[in-house]
């Protein structure tokens, strides 16, 4: 008998039934091949982890302007769609389920990564005190320029097309990345959004871009194939808001109105301190669908969260990099492999597809 029975209970997510309550969190690994196409090693990496209830792919840019780091995959070209199709085929053959995370970095980018050396785009021309990885290493992000209304409309259309591309590539659904200081989060929070038009100012206005993106994606592929990820208090990528509780409660209520399948919340600082002042129960009270939590959970914390009803699913990140068979190890109370930090971002098979599984 497993010590974590709640984790192994099936769950209905939209139109699919997941065998357990664990998701693989979206994890940037910077191993896309030329053209930002996912290759055979990426198919192997995800397939090794297909025993989790749901795999959420690494953040994947919806357009060339949505890229902010070297060697991250896209979902806007025919080659990228074909590359991802081999990944989803392999994951499905192994019995897994997989959503693609739709990403636009906004101001968290560098001119050297963007078409014709353009400046990054953002709600407002405010530079983040943040860094990114380029061919020249770890550099300060570039000064962004503010999007026009016509460009915002085009970006919404890019999200919609990217969602259709994800379905064409065989994904079971998409997660809209609205966390960690990237474009949608830049519209939400008042440190980065100082617009004076319909997309800035009030909470109603700052949530407009999120609402339009999620509505467009939901209309295109079905709301029951859509999730959204938020990080209400995370300061990652130099972002903050003066009143996050009211802002994110409004955002979650809007996600309920659209009828998406799940909300995924990073509790506290991304990859860091969990114990921050924010009422996550109040946040959840606005949503009736699947509630997924993330940030530094181990198996016992995850079991308590699910068993108590505080969450429906838990997304596990770094432990799943180092332990492809994390669920089997939990079930057998086996020791976990340590994570090799040096191979997290970029490189080859080392630290990507060569972590040992039990019995190996
Ligand atoms: C770490 C390095 C680069 C990107 C995120 C997509 O935080 C990321 C990311 C994380 O959501």
Give structural notes.
The protein is α/β, with parallel strands linked by helices and 360 residues long. The chain has a single domain (5-343), classed as Alpha-Beta Barrel (TIM Barrel), CATH 3.20.20.70. The protein is 30% helix and 16% strand. An eight-stranded parallel beta barrel has the order 3-4-5-10-11-12-13-14, surrounded by five helices. The chain has a two-stranded antiparallel sheet with strand order 1-2. Strands 6-9 form a two-stranded parallel sheet. α1 (40-48) runs parallel beside α2 (78-93), α3 (149-168) runs parallel beside α6 and α6 (208-221) packs parallel to α7. The longest helix has 20 residues, at 149-168. The relative contact order is 0.15. The mean pLDDT is 98. The structure holds 2-Phenylacrylic acid. The site of 2-Phenylacrylic acid (8OZ) has 5 residues, from loops.
Please render the helix and strand layout as text.
Layout: E1 11-13, E2 16-18, E3 22-24, H1 40-48, E4 54-61, H2 78-93, E5 98-103, E6 121-122, E7 131-134, E8 137-140, E9 145-146, H3 149-168, E10 173-177, H4 183-188, H5 203-206, H6 208-221, E11 226-230, H7 244-258, E12 262-266, H8 280-284, E13 290-294, H9 299-307, E14 313-316, H10 318-322, H11 326-331
Parallel strand pairs: 3-4, 3-14, 4-5, 5-10, 6-9, 10-11, 11-12, 12-13, 13-14
Antiparallel strand pairs: 1-2, 7-8
Helix pairs in contact: 1-2, 3-6, 6-7
Bound molecules: 2-Phenylacrylic acid.
């Amino acid at each position: 008998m497993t010590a974590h029975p709640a984790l192994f209970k099936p769950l209905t997510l939209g139109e699919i039934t997941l065998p357990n309550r664990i998701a693989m969190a979206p994890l940037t690994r910077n191993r896309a091949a030329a053209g930002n196409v996912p290759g055979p090693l990426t198919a192997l990496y995800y397939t090794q982890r297909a025993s989790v209830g749901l795999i959420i792919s690494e953040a994947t840019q919806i357009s060339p302007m949505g890229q902010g780091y070297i060697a991250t995959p896209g979902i806007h070209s025919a080659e990228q769609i074909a590359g991802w199709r081999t990944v989803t085929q392999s994951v499905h053959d192994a019995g897994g389920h997989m959503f693609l995370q739709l990403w636009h970095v906004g101001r968290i980018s560098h001119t050297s990564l963007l078409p014709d050396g353009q400046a990054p785009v953002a709600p407002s021309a405010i530079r983040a005190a943040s860094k990114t990885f380029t061919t020249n290493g770890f550099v300060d992000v570039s000064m962004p320029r503010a999007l026009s209304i016509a460009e915002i409309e085009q970006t919404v259309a890019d999200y919609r097309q990217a969602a259709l591309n994800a379905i064409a590539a065989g994904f079971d659904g998409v997660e809209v990345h609205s966390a960690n200081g990237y474009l949608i989060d830049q519209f939400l929070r008042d440190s980065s959004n100082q617009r004076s038009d319909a997309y800035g100012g009030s909470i109603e206005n700052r949530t407009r871009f999120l609402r339009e993106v999620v509505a467009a994606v939901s209309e295109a592929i079905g709301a029951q194939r859509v999730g959204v990820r938020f990080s209400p208090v995370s300061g990652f990528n130099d972002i903050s808001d003066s009143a996050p509780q009211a802002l994110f409660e409004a955002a979650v209520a809007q996600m309920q109105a659209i009828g998406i399948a799940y909300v995924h919340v990073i509790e506290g600082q991304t990859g860091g301190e969990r114990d921050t002042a924010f009422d996550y129960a109040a946040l959840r009270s606005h949503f009736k669908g699947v509630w997924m939590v993330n940030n530094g959970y181990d198996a016992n914390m995850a079991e308590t969260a699910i068993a108590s009803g505080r969450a429906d699913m838990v997304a596990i990140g770094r432990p799943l990099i180092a332990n492809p068979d994390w669920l089997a190890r939990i079930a057998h109370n086996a020791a976990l492999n340590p994570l090799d930090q040096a191979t997290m971002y970029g490189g080859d098979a080392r630290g990507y597809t060569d972590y040992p599984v039990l019995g190996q």
